[in-house]
Design goal:
Length: about 350
Amino acid sequence: MVSKNSSKPQEKCIGVIGVGSFGTVIANMLAEKNQVMVYARKEEVVHEINSLHSAQGKTLNPKIKGTSSPKEICEACEVLFLMISSSGFQDVVQSFAPHLFPYHLVIHGTKGLCLNLEKGQTLDSVKKIKRSQILTMSEVILQETVVVRVGCLAGPNLSKELTQSLPAATVIASKYNEVILEGQSLLRSEKFQVYGNSDIIGVELSGVLKNIIAIAAGALAGLNLGENAKGLLISRGMVEMVHLSNALGGSVKSVIGLAGIGDLVTTCNSVNSRNFTVGFRLANGEKLDEILASMDEVAEGVNTIRVIKAFLETADLRAPITEYLYRVLFENYDIKEALQFLMKYPFNVDIDFV
Ligand SMILES: NC(=O)c1ccc[n+]([C@@H]2O[C@H](COP(=O)([O-])OP(=O)(O)OC[C@H]3O[C@@H](n4cnc5c(N)ncnc54)[C@H](O)[C@@H]3O)[C@@H](O)[C@H]2O)c1
Ligand SMILES: O=P(O)(O)OC[C@H](O)CO
């Protein structure tokens, strides 16, 4: 877009829905090049954004305007970044649906799964689920709204490091090349590289599934089992991710790319990862309920383990790391015994998917 009076490109208004850890970082990155409007559901957070230029203590670029109105942000912005944890994703998308039109372009950054169950059913009541009862976030957007041009953003993107402007890269995945090009033009900078991928389901699943392995990596670290064991876990974890992703509709190529192996290595090695931290604290004897109650931010891997365990009940597939973590998290199985079992698991071949 070029204004009538100058050759400088006119700034667009880009919307960011959700101002948690990741939403604030992405909003600040977008504000380097364009006007940004952010949506927060609480009026006090909107007031803080507009008067103090921060969101729950996290600094925001003063150019960023806050609103609690889905209508206002959808009218002002054609491009929207959805940065909501998976637990609130479906509710937020439903509340935005009346204000979204086919001209909107929506990119999400959520690394979790939603369920597509009958009214009144829960994971506890059904216990076994099929692929059709699991929704990735792009599938939620397509199911609940008339938006067509949907993308996802995934990769090794720890928000604490992005806040410090440390170098990083991400993947924008979409079936539509224009979504990838738009995401690249909005976010790419000297410090932040943006790759494209057309396999949106595979990229979403890569970001979702690596959280499971990160919980196990945190547990290994908490038990001081060493770097050899971590190498073993990451490599077997990647194989498990490939098979699960395949069964859920993702391609191998995405898992071995930046959003898969790239994010897997980062998250399995960082105390800044919430999922790694859950595993680390479990290994130090804390109970899951205590850990989750003390965390302000979401560790998506915990719910993902429940969802994938229920999926495994209907799939012709073994995923031993996920299955044993489920027993540790939800059936009081001893974490040391689980890890010892996994170390001795009789995997016969190293790589069986190429
Ligand atoms: N923090 C990171 O380093 C990082 C990096 C990449 C991806 N992610 C992914 O991004 C997603 C969000 O992570 P985060 O770190 O920002 O989490 P967070 O807990 O800091 O923020 C979650 C945001 O979702 C909003 N939200 C949740 N339920 C809502 C509801 N019902 N209505 C309105 N708003 C609601 C919260 O208010 C908050 O703004 C997760 O899926 C995470 O896996 C996080
Ligand atoms: O803090 P985590 O464990 O949710 O990880 C954050 C990002 O997914 C890292 O890319």
